């Protein structure tokens, strides 16, 4: 990446490095220029410094002259810096100057023969920081020839005059500020809306009121530095580097490494202080939830569903044994303990849905179940047992974001919207529902049906539209938190990722064995960067959302894994429910010795980037 790829031309020799050796000049310590270069001797003649006059020829002078000639000769032989080297030196110089190491910057520029920025830019910077606005405006005329966009001068002048106007107002010089507004800003005929806003500041009674309304730091170094940052965006980088360019490049490099890390599952911190720049970013597979932390064996039959609460403090599991078990999650140890058991679901429990505030839990049964149960999780009491008809099949449910309504349906053509007491609010006839989801707008309900599609239904204006069309039955689906992506488990095909906004298939994930069993997959991890799914081959598969190949295959279950749930509050905690009657809790590897750690890593498949 070349930081100064723009603004080159006749000024390029001034804007990059100046090799004084090519002119046969030898540098001495007689003076320092504004660009950091040390003044050189005149035509190769030595200049004495003992009394300010030239000395005559002598042995000492001859020796110095010989040494000077030798130094000049060696400088001529020095390899000219490449463009990339020049850019790096300028970036380092800018960073050091920001740290206040000005003498070090001068020495770096002297030794390298580089110029940090164009002399006109240096003069412009100084005038802005000193508040010499007329001189800064004159500097713009010098910079005009170095700029690509003629309109940039007008914008820069507007920013200068705006700062000048605000500083006059803060100092109580209302007449001077009014003159700037009427005589200098308005004639620019630029951003008239902003000028109207600026004119309103004339009514401010005191400086604090002005700073608050203008969202301005006030006269001084802070506001002028902010102004300079804005002004620099209009100048080519060969003239003046963009603000804090080295930090920007380093931050981009860190973010790119994190994005490419297959197992990065912690909160992103944009601060460079949180990472080491001396080593590449890498997350170990052992930090990822691919190790069995706990096996829950309290169910006595197949476990069909599991779901963490929205706050991550509880886990609900539903089983063929007719019970729902609520587990309490210890947020420190990540261990689960049985909180309460909800009984009486005669057909078993194949689907569970937490209310948005985690107060209630709805349980649904398999295809031949015409009832659903709405439980108060905090008290363990059954609030509602709903059944519209014994011929119904209520196998799926989804909460409205307001927490006061829910939708439910099944494959026999029922599709209802109800309140918390089970009262029917709306119904949609003839929709054979396989799975449901309510979008965050509170109006749209997504429903997969027996026509291998997902349609959007609006209960307010009674409209519907096609969103996803597959070639095979959609056994289940879930939607990302932002409502943009849908994760489908498709019969005989596996796991598919769809973009609901663009209505396109984004990715097909490989490895999972999916027949005609209903398997529920999930998004998970920080920023929902990962996808997990059960499989009929008794494994849990985990993918990075951007890659089709699994980054981990978790073994331990002995029969089909029906459901996987990722804890929304603890990115390193995941649960899986299986026909083997157990629920496994997955987390990072504990502290193991090297041999055990090596053995653990074999349980997680590799995926080379």
UniProtKB/TrEMBL annotation:
This is WD repeat-containing protein 26. Residues 39-73 have a biased composition (Low complexity). Keywords: Cytoplasm, Mitochondrion, Repeat, WD repeat. Residues 117-176 form the CTLH domain. SMART domains: CTLH, WD40. WD repeats lie at residues 296-330, 342-373, 554-586. It comes from Monopterus albus. GO terms for cellular component: GID complex; mitochondrion. The keyword Repeat applies. Signal peptide: none annotated. It comes from the Eukaryota. It is found in: Cytoplasm; Mitochondrion. One of its GO terms (biological process) is proteasome-mediated ubiquitin-dependent protein catabolic process. InterPro entries: CTLH_C (IPR006595), LisH (IPR006594), TPL_SMU1_LisH-like (IPR054532), WD40/YVTN_repeat-like_dom_sf (IPR015943), WD40_repeat_dom_sf (IPR036322), WD40_rpt (IPR001680), WD_repeat-ST_regulator (IPR051350). The lineage of its organism: Eukaryota, Metazoa, Chordata, Craniata, Vertebrata. Residues 1-38 have a biased composition (Polar residues). Its main location: cytoplasm. PANTHER family: WD REPEAT PROTEIN 26-RELATED, WD REPEAT-CONTAINING PROTEIN 26. Residues 1-80 are annotated as: Disordered.
